[in-house]
Amino acid sequence: MRAAALTAVSTMVVAGCAPSQSNNASSKDTGKVPDKIVIGSTLPLTGTESKTGGRYKQGYELAIDEINAAGGVDVNGKKVKVELKLLDDTSDQAKAVNLAQRLITSDNVNFFLGTYSTALVEAQSTVAEQNKIPYVNGGGAATSIYAKGYTWVFSTLAPVENLATNEMEWIDKQQKAGKLPKPAKIAVVWENTSHGKDFRKGIEEFVKKSGNYSIPVNESFALDGKDFSAVLNKVQAAKVDLFMVDAHLPDFITMQRQYLSSGMCNKVLTYGARGTEADAKKDLGQKGVDYILSAVWWNQQLGNKGLNKTFVDSFTKKFGAAPEWYQAVSYEAARSLFTAITNAKSVDKTKVRDALSSLKMDSILPGGKLSFPAAKGGQASYPFVVQQNLPDGSSPIVYPDNVATGTGTAPNPGCKG
Amino acid sequence: MTTTAQSRRVRLPGWLSMRALIIFVVALVLLYLAPTVLGLGDYLHNIAGLTFMFMAAGLAWNWLGGYVGQISFGHAAMFGTGGFVAARLTISSGLPFWATWLIGGVVAGLYALLWGHPTLRLRGPYFSIATIGVGEATRLVATYWTDFTGGSSGLSLPIGNGPTKFQMYWYGLYLLAAVVVISYWLRRSRIGLGLLAIKEDVEAASDVGVNPTFYQDVVLFLSGTVVGVCGGFYASYQAFIDPLDMFSFERSISFVLIGVIGGIGTILGPAMGAVVYIVIQEFLLASYPQLYLGLYGLLLIFVILFEPLGLSGLLMRVGRRFGIRPSPSAAAGGMSSAAAVPDQPTASVGAGSTDTKDGPR
Lengths: 417, 361
What we know:
The complex is a heterodimer. By secondary structure, chain A is an alpha/beta fold. Chain A has two domains: about 200 residues, Rossmann fold (3-Layer(aba) Sandwich), CATH 3.40.50; about 160 residues, Rossmann fold (3-Layer(aba) Sandwich), CATH 3.40.50.2300. Chain A contains 14 helices and 15 strands. In chain A, the strands form three sheets. Chain A has a seven-stranded mixed β-sheet, with helices on both faces. Chain A is globular, with a radius of gyration of 24 Å. The N and C termini of chain A lie far apart (about 90 Å). The N terminus of chain A is likely disordered. Helix content of chain B is about 70%, strand content about 0%. The C terminus of chain B is likely disordered. Chains A and B meet through helix 1, helix 3, helix 4 and helix 7 of A and helix 2, helix 3, helix 8 and helix 14 of B.
């Protein structure tokens, strides 16, 4: 008996340890066009990023409503309706991963639209790559996501490094015009995610090249912070000219509140892509966000004709408010997936993945064209639009010059002395 | 009696009974073959693999929480340590995945000893509070130790180098099998008796020659090592880990929940607790992402109020109704433990060893 038992156990352990063939063979192209395309997605609909998650949802919904209103996605001449299966990942990385796993392996969704925030996309993209399913997102901007050699992950967000560089270019212009000190001291404060690291890298590289800046404060903070007083004290003590932060919306609001309450004021203040959000104005008041510089992936002032006009008009009609960049990038993520399906003439995952890799479509994003270059690991690349909040509630584009609708103000007139 | 006689015939170790061995081997073979025979879908198959891992982690937590009565709310510290060491080794070395899990486990075990050696002198709620502090401090350090953990962004493991998610079912099963054997051995060996003595009364145990510091250190090291191996398994399974999840208080609580729901101090208990934990999580996560935490809380309250021995106790209660008395020798696959039958002095299972009474604390 003992010999039999030992034999059974040792046979299992020694002989290869684990069978390798999955029960469900990966979906092969049968050439059959389905009656419905199911797209899986998760978004932070509750939790710290719920406000932003809600905006991404609007972008996805608008794109799907539009395509369904037109009869569906054209797949080799047949119009196929699209259904979005959206779950709430509660702004939690582990849940984003588990739910994606569930949508792909249990609900058998055809394609995937990504979640929001770099940290969550970074986690979730591994599931897409493991399961070989096309994954288009508008929520993960850090270059590290696209430097892993993944071939199933695509992003409509240009790299955060570009964001920092574009902001520095505007700042440099002000310095050359004599509006900012030379050399200028910068405090770089960044969330300790790949997003934050890219932001820091963009500034550091610009500073190295320019020689007209120094960085006496270079500090990181953990996501979803409650108390930033330690880092703000360091910034205050260093008497810097430029306070440049990379933060997500909840951290931006918390830090800016503490920044204002401690009486701080710097010649230039930026929180990366944050500053123009209605939630920030609501929480901090207009005065609390005045003169904040931000660089974003899209601004409705980019144009009032063609695709941009159609997008803004349909969005405003459907949701009763003007879109922000969040809705624009998610809308484009969904649209690019539909275009790729049409180009692939099939719902076969590999063919759609290849179509995404070679995609070049007209877009509302800066530059007017959207593609996912392989050289950048599937991440779109285009210039950011730099904008600045003014006391009248407007946020004109101040850079690049060819799309600028204002000149911007430096140094911050709100600072005393 | 028959079983004891058989044990003597085939010269099994004193702590092992033939009946337990048979149950163990049959269960192992059935679970090994289950995916092939039942043709589970990928989703259920993968979840089963993850459940095995949680069963193993719950059992390992139970060695400290159930056998010694030292409730730890900080086991996520070892889970995370093991996971990140294994992940770092996977990324930067050519070691096979199982070696990275083992090394991660040993590092986690040593880390457990580092904080556990001084804190295990505390008893009851004082020890529990200390473990909360250790867990939170470890989480903070890990979150800011960007070079090691990747900070809030976490670490992605290379895809395609290790076992597939599909294969993880079997590795999870092997891990669980090993942990069940250790659990059974711990429960039935002299060490197990020493642990129960410590749980009852540290000073009295000391007086009769049991060295509480040594015994508790050994158990904490073993528990930390296995939970660390589970962390390595989890890293390979998810191919992505981040410190906010791996070291979270929620993670520590999950081990406590698994133990308490299933039945602290038993072997089958944490295994059943893990199934309940995963079922609730998976089936409520998609539809009611905030609700499942509340449900765990409710379950905890019900268990503590009405059935302190959790599902094990419930099973035994039902069993007694039908006149079935749990046999102590069924522990490897059953629910035998002194804790499970506090009013039943258990039979001798080995040379000179006798189980003592042991109730939940």
